[in-house]
Amino acid sequence: MKISMIGTGYVGLVSGTCFSEMGITATCVDVDVEKINGLKKNQIPIWEPGLNAMVKRNAERKRLFFTTSLKESLVGAEACFIAVGTPPDEDGSADLKYVLAVADEIGQYITDYMVIVTKSTVPIGTAEKVRKTVQDALNKRGVNIPFDVASNPEFLKEGDAIDDCMHPDRIVIGTDSDRAKQILDRLYKPFVLNGHPIIYMDIPSAELTKYTANAMLATKISFMNDIANLCEIVGADINMVRKGIGSDKRIGPYFIYAGTGYGGSCFPKDVQAIIKTADENNYSLEILKAVESVNNRQKETLYRKLMKYFNNDIKGKKFAMWGLSFKPNTDDMREAPALVLIDKITKAGAEVVAYDPVAIDECKRRIGNKVTYAKTAYQAIDNADALLLVTEWTEFRVLNYPKLEKLKNKLIFDGRNIYDPNELKSNGYEYFSIGR
Predict the structure, then answer these.
(1) If you count Cβ atoms within 10 Å of the first and of the last residue's Cβ in the chain, which end, N or C, has fewer?
(2) pLDDT in 10s for each residue of the chain, 436 residues
(3) Which of 80, 165, 266, 363 is catalytic?
(4) Is the separation of the CB atoms in 273 and 210 below 8 Å?
(5) How many whole angstroms separate alpha carbon 225 and alpha carbon 231?
(6) What is the DSSP letter of 190?
(7) What domains lie within the chain, and their CATH numbers?
(8) 431 with 425: CB under 8 angstroms?
(9) What is the dihedral of CA 226, 230, 235, 237, to 10 degrees?
């Protein structure tokens, strides 16, 4: 089988590569000439464990191709996946201009029956807009070529995307066509040999499923952060509360860790988009509006703790920051709490010296020299007034106390609750965390 994957961002590149790993011929398309030329040389534009080797292996075996020509990618393809960006518009709704531009181009070039699959996270009704756009393009050509449209939302976690794609716990497909279902069954059969299901449904339900999943996970995070703030006020320990509720099978142990708030490419924009969809239909999603409000507030929690400790005056001070990406195992800094913290601290007149295992180049691209960048974690703390732990990379989990002596003050603010308060106290450190 042959497919076309349009878009080489996180979703498109990982999905196309994983399809090729299963023996399917995948052609990945992007308008970015520099990116495509780099991919042909095995230069991967995103940091994802295992992706580099998989791209190289399948490109060498002539199962994975890269091109800037959408027309070329459609030749012989049975399915075409639209995996381009849907950035939030100014009002929070998903911007569909890239999706519909691709749909128009598909309509200009298809010559045989094809399943056109929306892989991007899109609001309800997008598939019908894609269908109309493709048909309009065919009408302009004066040709009658059959096609179907389907919705196939992705559920990849950055940092675990390869495993999520190769061993999915479920595959959601929205379609109203038996012919499309047969093609998608064949495409996805290798991925569900582990017994996990392909869940077929109507297209609007599939489109809403992705938003609902991310909104639920975001809700769990904001809920726990709100409870963590209450724990600090009443003298409880959020880690004990988490263990107490996480053992309840109805709740489960996942996404109930307190911290500095969620970020990344999915949760913030998807929560905004589903709120906007409801507003457009004259319904207010009050719980999700609260989720968003709590999260925005939580991103400032380490700054508030810092200001309280230093009596609201940090001018001229120097702070070490460990972690820049919104979570470990990625260089993604979209909506990262670190960006909010950096902005607050530098505006208050203090200096930030930052270290991250992989996200420094991305940080430089976003904010330039607003902070000083260290080559190692312990170089960052040299003569700093305090250490701020923002992203829980594994290399930060065990502290090297002799190297930690370079801190001017024995003061640590832990935004991810990864350290033992008693251990730090016994080593002479003042320690502040979330909800403890």
Answers:
(1) N
(2) 999 999 999 899 999 999 999 999 999 999 999 999 999 999 999 889 999 999 999 999 999 999 999 999 999 999 999 999 887 776 777 789 999 999 999 999 999 999 999 998 898 999 999 999 999 999 999 999 999 999 999 998 888 999 999 999 999 999 999 999 999 999 999 999 878 899 999 999 999 999 999 999 999 999 999 999 999 999 999 999 999 999 999 999 999 999 999 999 889 999 999 999 999 999 999 999 999 999 999 999 999 999 999 999 999 999 999 999 999 999 999 999 999 999 999 999 999 999 999 999 999 999 999 999 999 999 999 999 999 999 999 999 999 999 999 999 999 999 999 999 999 999 999 999 999 9
(3) 266
(4) no
(5) 10
(6) G
(7) 2-201 (3.40.50.720), 211-298 (3.40.50.720), 301-432 (3.40.50.720)
(8) yes
(9) -20
The alpha carbon of residue 262 and the mean position of all alpha carbons in its chain are separated, in whole angstroms, by: 10
DSSP 8-class letter at 159: T
Q: Secondary structure of 287-330 in the HEC alphabet?
A: HHHHHHHHHHHHCCHHHHHHHHHCCCCCCCCEEEEECCCCCCCC
**341, burial (CB in 10 Å: exposed 0-12, middle 13-18, buried 19+):** buried
What is the C-alpha separation between 159 and 332, in angstroms, rounded?
10
Closest CA to 10 of 80, 83, 59: 83
The model carries a pTM of 0.90
Beta pairing class for 430-432 and 64-67: unpaired
Concerning whether 266 is annotated as a catalytic residue, the answer is yes
In angstroms, rounded to a whole number, what is the distance separating the alpha carbons of residues 282 and 279? 5
Residue type, 408: K
Residue whose entry in the numeric block shows the structure tokens 């409801």: 278
Q: What are phi and psi of 94, to 5 degrees?
A: -75, 130
Q: How far apart are CA 177 and CA 114, in angstroms?
A: 12
